[in-house]
Amino acid sequence: MPDMLFCYCCRVHHPREQMHSFRTSQGLRWRCQRSIDAAKCSTSERDAFGKQQTEINREASLEVAKRIYLSAP
Questions:
Q1: How far is CA 13 from the centre of its chain?
Q2: Count of helix runs (H) and strand runs (E) in the chain
Q3: How far apart are the first and last CA of the chain?
Q4: Model-level pTM?
Q5: How remote is the C-alpha of 55 from its chain's centroid?
Q6: What is the pLDDT of residue 53?
Q7: What is the pLDDT of residues 13-60, one digit of tens each?
Q8: Which residues in 27-47 are b (16+ Cβ under 10 Å) and which e?
């Protein structure tokens, strides 16, 4: 995963070519093009994007939890 960067907005790793760096008060952070495009949309579209991303993150965390549970002795 060396060419993957963490998006502070959607909290997912993406390929470097999909990422843009932003200077914040906390330092340099990376944000994916998908989240940048979503921020330019209307409020209802942004809310839909957020709900979709929440569901993606929830499913990913459940998969990790299942793997950990199934691999426990």
A1: 6
A2: 2, 4
A3: 28
A4: 0.61
A5: 11
A6: 87
A7: 999 999 999 898 989 999 999 889 988 989 999 899 889 989 998 999
A8: eebbbbebbeebeeeeeeeee
